[in-house]
Amino acid sequence: MIETGADGRSWLLSGPTSSYALRLDDEDHLLHLHWGPRITLADLAELAGLPLPQWSFESRLDGHEEYPVEGGARFAEPALIVRSPGVRGTRWSYVRVEVTGGELRLGFADPLTCLDLTLHYRVREGHDVVERWVTVANTSPDTPLEVPRADSATWTLPVRASWRLSHLHGRWGAESRLVRVPLSYGAHTIGSRRGHTGHTHLPWVALDADGTATEEHGEVYGCALAWSGSWRLATRRLPDGAVQVTGGWGHDDTGLLLLGPGESRTTPVLAGLRSDGGFGGASAAWHAWQLAHVVPSAAEDRPVLYNSWEATWFEVDEERQLALARRAAALGVELFVVDDGWFGRRTSDRAGLGDWTPNPDRFPRGLAPLARAVRALGMRFGIWVEPEIVNPDSDLYRAHPEWVQHVPGREPTLFRNQLVLNLARPEVAAFVEEQVRRLLESAPIDYVKWDFNRSFTDPGWPGEAFPERLWTEHVEALYGILDRLRAAHPGVAFESCSGGGGRIDLGILSRTDQVWTSDNTDPADRLAIQHGFGQVHPARVMAAWVTDSPNEQMNGRVSSLRFRFVSAMAGVLGIGGDLTRWSEAELAEAAGWIGRYKEVRPVVQRGRLHRLLPPDGDGPSAVQYSLGDEVVVLAWLRAQSFGAEPAPVRLRGLDPGGVYVCQDTGRAHRAPVLLHHGLRTGLRGDLDAAVFRFRRAG
């Protein structure tokens, strides 16, 4: 809901539990008034009447503006930087307002630079997430306008004595690790300079006042960016204690955009959320909003998949894939995915990328016979591609070496035996789209795993006067390709992968059905990765595999099928082991776990997540999912010391007057007992795990 104040210069955006308020002062400064519990227009009027503090040597605007710009008496880091010939900085005037449905648009103009700026705000019915973004335009008839920085939003938090910052950090194979630190004075900046979201950070932060919030209680603020290229989120505590979060596309403040006469660009969404339900309440609100308004076809449960990568590596041919498919189908797998190695001269990672036609020696009849055979087994058929990348040893590169990102006069940097195609070039984007389109038309393909294993290293564009534009336009071209492919093939699902979790953000999630969380499939390591991932994104998009033991790719750890399956059941279940080497007993056990997952899948993928015990150290950890009257608990124990029985796990979110029946034992449990005394899991030893299903009976 969006309401306008009686003065016509203040606005109130409200969700179920929170409100966001802003106003224009007499000098057309757009000031932030409120982000917190729901308030009324009468409360807004009182806030609008409060004067700004005055300081002798500080700006009265710093820490109070909705969208700080460079220019005038401002010393805080700006969200917007523009350059026109002979002019540095911005001084705008308010020119328009539009309120349409759930969107507020405020327009400003700077006649000296010919800048036109629109600030967008959107709230969705039933959700507390506020979506913000910016459109910047050059109204000059003949002069370009350089925009070194155009952040999507600046978020201002209420004044508190102190704040604690939460964010996700990591690296390849260890993504999405949660860290919480006191916020000191100055700036804490996370982001990526790699051209994609990156493994190092997910574009999300959360803050709680005085570090007192828990999973269930306390006020938590969060921000998340919908962008899959280089990005930046800066959380700043100003000299007077005010706290702001600003961010958007681009990591550096040089050469982001160059707007020709009459041109405009729109930034990605930077969403903000305030919750009074602790970190768990904030996660639940993020998840519900994404499932309702971000993730495509989120009401459909994702199928159990099998992926052939760790079974065959580059030894891919029709016979081997069909042998794996038969075993996968017998287990109850619903989607069979052929990974890398099926195309061109792809017998290793040194050749073939860019040539997206089946290898004639390995698939002499193309992919269609295998795809039809997989479908005849009762499964859907999927394929792996990496269309943005090319090997120098490929027909594509030999034909078009100029299509890769590279700096004139320098040898392109070979990284992972790969180079990056410049999708910002229209002919390159058109070629990539056509290649994937032809692939989808060549066989009955139901699923595409879209990988991106290579960061930008040579962001050059020979012959282009402003090569910096490839940083944003490559990603926008990718979005366009995916949007058009999805529209042309609505029955095909897409997964985003980038060497594991290197491209996970709200932007790519609005165009894909799930994401590959990490290349690390070790079930114990995955608990911490999944714990961090779930802070902002729902289980419905989190792909997790059961692979072979020992886990030779990562750490050599030996673990039981039970532990591997229960770990992977916390998201979208997949199998990635070499089924031709599994014993009959292992295959039978795996079929049982897959059947069990299908029983709990609707609750896991669409239910409300409760993090009961975090995966800290060697002790027990547990999560709970609730959907209607159904409750599922997954519990793990990494290691047990002699005589140390794991403590009962206290459930959450139950009806206090309800009775919950365990669907496996038939035993009835009163809700107060489960909530206060907890569930005895029976876990023991090392790397043990269990699944519990409950249904409310009364």
UniProtKB/TrEMBL annotation:
Membrane-spanning parts: none
Stretches assigned to the Glycosyl hydrolase family 36 C-terminal domain: 628-694
Alphabetical list of Pfam families matching this protein: Glyco_hydro_36C, Glyco_hydro_36N, Melibiase
Keyword Hydrolase: yes
EC number: 3.2.1.22
Alphabetical keyword list: Glycosidase, Hydrolase
Gene3D superfamilies listed in its UniProt record: Aldolase class I, alpha-galactosidase from lactobacil brevis, Golgi alpha-mannosidase II
Domain Glycosyl hydrolase family 36 N-terminal: 29-257
Catalytic activity: Hydrolysis of terminal, non-reducing alpha-D-galactose residues in alpha-D-galactosides, including galactose oligosaccharides, galactomannans and galactolipids
Protein family (similarity comment): Belongs to the glycosyl hydrolase.
Protein name: Alpha-galactosidase
Organism: Streptomyces daghestanicus
